[in-house]
Specification:
This protein is of the alpha/beta class. It contains 10 helices and 10 strands. The strands form 3 sheets. The chain has a 5-stranded parallel sheet with strand order 1-2-3-4-8, with helices on both faces. The chain has a 3-stranded mixed sheet with strand order 5-7-9. A two-stranded parallel sheet has the order 6-10. Strand 3, helix 5 and strand 4 (about 165-170) form a beta-alpha-beta unit. Helix 2 (about 50-60) packs across helix 4.
Length: about 325
């Protein structure tokens, strides 16, 4: 752990630190001996406003910011709220970066999204491919808002010497995820639906799309390890993928989740609903070479842990 000693004496603020990924990042920082980071709550600081950001920075006095706060959701939520997804994510990031620069914050770690990649990116996604086309329509407003923060950090590095880095995690899952049926991503949504179908004795679960699309998934604790390692060890203007490097079809994912939950029925596919991006799988070599990050939790193990947490904490079974 000595290689991460650069973090132990810093005043760290983690936006979104009470959220799904944020609580894992805070736990990882604590594991490395860092003092408790400052975690702004949305009820106290509106980070989409100049006043909220300035007050947060005055209260936190950070020399390292890890920016995780975001408005996020599944395909349905993106489809219903494209303007809010663009505005909230753009304003939070742009204001935080600018105000942090003015205050002389020593280091800024911005966590972006693989939704910024072009819809037809060749697999595996290489960071160099980020500007090869337009993102998938279903999540483009969110993805473009996040991508602009990369441009801002690179511009500020060139003009002001600001020490900012940009990370792009793949689809995350794990305990404490959002299991709300209206806004959840694919893994928590399917865990909930399979669990409810099992408990109700139903033998069919209907899923969005065709099941042909592929995704890559990263267990949330693994992602936290990657973010903390990057915060301590990475220094460069280029974006960095964080992922497992393992591609899985949505159809295969549903079967794995059914097995983890104990649902023995079958899945039907509603092809009138969008699949989203056709394929997602990352080239993770830059993270491995740049700060020694490789995912450790396999998908089946992670699904078992996540479904067990859901059953214990939220499920009815």
């Amino acid at each position: 752990m000595t290689e991460l000693n650069a973090l132990t004496g810093r005043r760290i603020a983690v936006t979104g630190g009470a959220g799904f990924l944020g609580r894992a990042v805070v736990a990882e920082l604590t594991r490395h001996g860092c003092p408790p980071p400052f975690v702004p709550r949305s009820a106290d600081y509106d980070l989409t406003t100049e006043e909220g950001v300035d007050r947060f920075l005055a209260d936190a006095q950070p020399d390292l910011i890890i920016h995780l706060a975001a408005r996020v959701g599944g395909i349905g939520a993106h489809d219903a709220n494209p303007g809010a997804f663009l505005y909230d994510n753009l304003m939070m990031g742009a204001l935080l970066i600018e105000r942090a620069r003015r205050r002389g914050v020593g280091r800024f770690v911005c966590v972006g999204s693989i939704c910024s990649y072009p819809a037809q990116t060749a697999v595996p996604f290489r960071e160099e491919d980020l500007w090869e086309g337009y993102p998938a329509e279903t999540t483009a407003p969110y993805g473009l808002a996040k991508k602009l923060l990369l441009v801002q950090l690179q511009a500020y590095r060139r003009q002001y010497g600001m020490d900012g880095i940009y990370l792009m995690p793949v689809n995350l899952y794990g305990p404490h995820d959002n299991f709300d049926p209206e806004t959840s991503h694919v893994i928590p949504a399917l865990i909930r639906r399979c669990s409810e179908a099992r408990d109700a004795g139903r033998d069919v679960v209907t899923c969005w799309g065709t099941g042909v699309a592929t995704r890559e998934f990263l267990y949330v604790d693994d992602c936290a390890v990657g973010i903390v390692r990057a915060a301590a060890l990475y220094d460069g203007p280029e974006p960095v993928n964080l992922g497992s490097g393992q591609e899985t079809s949505i159809r295969d994912l549903t079967e794995r989740i059914g097995h983890a939950v104990g649902f023995t029925g079958r899945f039907e596919w509603d092809a009138s609903k969008p699949d989203g991006q056709p394929r997602v799988c990352l080239d993770t070599r830059r993270a491995r070479d740049g700060f020694g990050f490789e995912a450790r939790v396999g998908l089946d193990d992670g699904l078992a842990r996540t479904s067990a947490w859901y059953e214990a904490s939220m499920g009815s079974g």
